[in-house]
# Entry
Amino acid sequence: AGRLSQLSQNTLLLSKLENMELIQKKEKYRLDSQIRNCAILQLPAFETKYISLEVNLPEIWYFGNEELLDEVWTNLLDNARKYSSEHTTIFINGRKTEEGICWSVADTGIGIPLAEQERIFERFYRVDKSHSRATGGTGLGLSIVKHGAELHGASVRVDSAPDQGTTITIVFPA
# Structure
């Protein structure tokens, strides 16, 4: 029942995001605080796998839709947790560069083969179907991440290799 409810909610959210052309409600807020709060809310799930978080987030103010970006960070952190082994570390980093405001979530988990990286942002796509029950995913999280980021004018990059982990980086325009 819980998985079905999550699937329904995520499907509705993704449909809404795919049909949006621009974000109506934007406000200025601290993006670094938002990401920390999302991580804190997920700490119990991280602790069950003895996963630690290493956070390096400078104070950065941003003008965007806080509710939508909550979904982005929550999905990135949830994926990093699901695909990481016990007793590992997940790295959350932020920085301002010439390119823009860069945020990344990196794990040392199972990684994604290069041939499949192109498809991970597709709706319902799952790299390893055999792990779907164990991880509890719906295949919608990274689609939500991509659409949410793009509605803010951001780009999403993936850097991954099997058995070496995955880093997802979101770059917001400067």
About this structure: Confidence is low (pLDDT under 50) at residues 129-134. The longest strand covers residues 89-96. The two ends are 43 Å apart (CA to CA).
